[in-house]
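User: If only I could read backbone structure tokens as easily as an amino acid sequence. Those tokens are not coordinates but codes from a learned vocabulary of shapes. Could you go through the record with me and say what the backbone is doing? Here is the record:
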Amino acid sequence: MAAPASLDILDLAALLCSRLCHDVISPVGAIINGLEVLADEKDEAMKKNALDLIRKSAGQASARLQFARLAYGAAGSAGAQIDLADAGDVARKLLQDDRLTVAWNLPRALLPKNRVKLVLNLILIAVAAIPRGGTLTVDAVGEGERMGFRLTAAGANAKLAPAVAGLLDGSAADGLDAHAIQPYFTGLLARAAGLKITLAGAGQSVVLTASEA
């Protein structure tokens, strides 16, 4: 399916920037709050708590920016390739959480950048389907530069938001906001890579597959 022409390229860029700002504003705000406590607080225990908050929030901000650099950014010139191992590293740093277990079953290999960006964006959609935590499994579909991906998100009440399917296939481009732009962008990446995304749900799991049509 061709990408809809209703979304202007400048609107796409603006909405992706808004999404990035949304992702990093929370940890950056927490760092600022921690610094204010350090400046005003006399109690040593409170200062220690503030330092812990700053360290944790700085780590979160760094992880989100590193992830966004690969998932949304140019990541090299046209035709560039990205190592799947690097993608796995930034995904684990972003997702490290006591509630979520990540099984990254992709081989170490260089793939065209749009395919690597695609799997990272699919991860965000899959994780959103299990807000209470669970297990995310990332498997390869095929091999070599034509490799696709299968992501299985398993957890309590696993479910994709109703709008996701239309955003992925490009049929729901009207009224996009900073939240909806990410699955829409994922669909653009899939089409640019020559892959088709299919969705399935069974029991307590959701499966997203990107493979050649």
The first helix runs from residue 9 to 40.
